[in-house]
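Technical appendix A lists one of the benchmark inputs used to test multi-chain prediction within the project. The record comprises four sequence entries:
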Amino acid sequence: MSARETILDAAARVMREKGIARATTKEIAREAGYSEALLYKHFADKQDIYMSVLRERVGGLADPTELAGTGEVHENLVDVTVGLMAFYVASFPMSASIFSDVELLVAWRSGLTEKGGGPRAPLRMVERYVASEIELGRIDAAADSYAIAAMLCGAAFQQAFLACFDGLDAVPDAAAVAERLVASLVIAGANNGSNRSF
Amino acid sequence: MSARETILDAAARVMREKGIARATTKEIAREAGYSEALLYKHFADKQDIYMSVLRERVGGLADPTELAGTGEVHENLVDVTVGLMAFYVASFPMSASIFSDVELLVAWRSGLTEKGGGPRAPLRMVERYVASEIELGRIDAAADSYAIAAMLCGAAFQQAFLACFDGLDAVPDAAAVAERLVASLVIAGANNGSNRSF
DNA sequence: TGTACATCAGTGAACGCGCGTTCACTGATGTAC
DNA sequence: TGTACATCAGTGAACGCGCGTTCACTGATGTAC
């Protein structure tokens, strides 16, 4: 593995485990097993390291749109929600860290407009998946794909926050929680007492 | 206003507007109009200032439980959700900042166990309100108060995050968004095509 | 009423430290002839 | 096959700076007699 990649891995690890405030050039170099000086052969400055980590090490989310039309809608939504929780647990510490410095936040935001990522990407994906199922007639036409995406992503996001707050690296009982969330959504045309009528 | 309060206000302002990383003792003192030395007459150290701001300046959320039984359930839930969005927009930058330093996070977490606050307080309140309405027969007995609270709070939390990310100080169209969220929840026994059947 | 002292809010200037960054350098590996 | 030079990954040691913190001090206000 190239020195650059090793440094990025080390930086990502330090940022995740100790927070961005402790992710000093000394600490990153030590973790990577290189001298501090080498960091500056591969990156312009410290902020460039942070930005590169955010760009290249905060993984994306698998697009669930391709699930549309396959399997059971309810199961798919539960799976998607569980995936969201895992995704947010992994990315929350870093995303949150960015709020520690408004200048960093601004840099991240403007660096994001060029590519399709950003914090709204998961919401858009889930909304698109739900919209596809509506088109296929597997979710009631009256269902609100935007609201459903906002609540599933939102709940997953907050559950991930709480897990991180507790120092955990996964949402406890993720599947069971996801199950209850999905069961409480209006996604069927006739919902007579049963929360799973499709 | 006492110097202590002035300093806390200044610290809260700096933390909110520039992020915790820029909330240096110099910056806080300048903003407060006092010397840095005075900070140390009122606080043990910088972390004590941060902690005091979190304890005394990050306001709580009005408990919605007392709404139970009054007005319309749907309107109440929308109002609660709008309140949640406002609350989270105000507190997110600071809560997120804490993740920039794991040591700070640990200190905050352990300082929290003594009092009733913490990041789960809003969830508990909303759940309690929904449970009350279920007991009163105004929300169907099959509804899941936990899941409903998780989704309303979660969505509000994430919408607040997105607003902060965009540099805004309020969630755009908060009322309309809240309306759609509530309309997509399973809260009525018979939900035949109408999302507002109670 | 005056005087001597105590208390208190507040400060300017300095302190050591760890930070991000740079510089001159090394030693190994290619490469032209 | 040597040899002279170029390139390249990597480093030790130093740099200036801004940070959090402390110290000795001031000047105003209370207070006992």
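Residues 3, 34-38, 41 of chain A lie near DNA strand D (CB under 10 Å from a C1'). Confidence is low (pLDDT under 50) at residues 189-198 of chain A. Comparable benchmark entries are summarised in Table A2.
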